Amino acid sequence: MSQALQKKSALETKNLALLIANEELALKNAEIEKQLFALTLVNQTLASKIEEMESQIVEINDLAFYDPLTHLPNRRLLLDRLQIALTNSARNKQEGAVIYLNLDNFKALNDTYGQNFGNSLLQQIAERLVSSVRVSDTVAHLGGDEFVIVFQTLGLNNLKAAGHVRTIAKKLLKALSKPYRLESIPYECTSSIGIILFNPPVSSPTELLQHAAIAMQQAKKEEGNSLRFYDPKMQETISARADLEDELRTAIEKKQFQLYYQVQVDGTGKAVGAECLIRWIHPERGLISPTDFIALCEETGMIITIGHWVLDAACAQLNEWQKHPSTRDLVLAVNVSAKQFSQPDFVKQVVLTLYRHNIPPKFLKLELTEGMLVHDMDATIRTMQKLCKLGVQFSLDDFGTGYSSLQYLKKLPLHQIKIDQSFVRDIAHNAHDKTIVHTIIAMASSMELNVIAEGVETEEQQQILMNKGCSTFQGYYFGRPVPIEIFDAAMKSNYPVQEP
Ligand code: C2E
Ligand code: CA
Ligand code: CA
User: 75-230 is classed in which CATH architecture?
Assistant: First the structure.
């Protein structure tokens, strides 16, 4: 073979080899591209997975730290921010404060118009709060109708800081009391605010919130749109009250109450009846006066249970009295608290108790106070009328200390007016009291009402009262409130009612 031919054949072989190598490369390329494509796909899926996870994290974060209704920080985030604020304040000595805000009568709105109304109000409140404070202040929604605002860097001066927060709190109250539109219905509401500054000795964010809430509760006792600063003395009173409340629950359970009886006499000194007055016989502290616990019982609603017990014990006693000539004509006066009287089943309770103890209703006299008449006059009159028709008597206690007005007196089916002891105390020396008593008696007699004076301690007081036309008397001069054995013994032996 010629040299040229040999060269050509070698070239052809090389070309072939190159072609084969090229094809192999192309194949490899295609393979790589395929893998690249697969990788891109994997990448894309990964990216969208990461995005999805990120949005889930945001969602979880939102749920964990923000209130879904108002989108404000929730309790958890608030506590977190408060902790940071407290640490900062301890470091830079700048004052900080917490405002605890609660709407008045929110439950009534929810109950009357439904939850949508309530929610719409809460959203609008949140907006107003946020727009009334600085961006750096934390406005949080604890749930329900409770909002908290945290203020930082209020300066180094404690008093100035207090004044500043007070101004903000007033501004907030004003902003929140402007009218709202709830599903196109106009609505207005008031709020109550409790304030606490970051002063030591506050140990934790939770404690700070608790104290601010206590101050808010105090503000709530006022008319609405009120604010109160937390005061450590407040805490002491509240703890003492909480202890008393616990002890009272035990007292109800263990039946630690007893009725004492104080005689009521006519102008000749003859006993015509008695008032029963509750005593708490405490296992350690001994006898406790009702002035130390009745108000709390009224506030907590425990008075309903206690009131039932008093009425039942009084009627049981009337039944005993019916069996003896010395006591069978006595009328027994029972104090009834406003809460008890306004119970829808009050009339039924009284009727059932009279029936259970087989008592003619005329021997039972219920003592009401003027204050309880002003609330719902019509309902009060209706309840009184029902019982009056049965023969139950009514006496208006502490007369002259409340909102006495002739207008309502005329409407009430009353039998008696009880002149408050504050007018009797100084009647011998105080011309003003003498005139008041004179006027009360004249007015009562024109309305044909019996008048009883309470707190009569001396013969002189009784004489003056009698000269003015008072017909019935009660007070230490005739007998102190005593346990039933002593009272009954005195009735049998015709007085005097001695102390135990
Ligand atoms: P109240 O109904 O005005 O009772 C008259 C209070 O004056 C009684 O106080 C009585 O012990 C006291 N007192 C009577 N005579 C004299 C006197 O000559 N001088 C002086 N300085 N005081 C006299 P007490 O027993 O401590 O009762 C206080 C209040 O507690 C009662 O005032 C009444 O509002 C309430 N309370 C007592 N028992 C009951 C009850 O069973 N139910 C309810 N809801 N309240 C009751
Ligand atoms: Ca009374
Ligand atoms: Ca009284």
Answer: 2-Layer Sandwich (3.30)
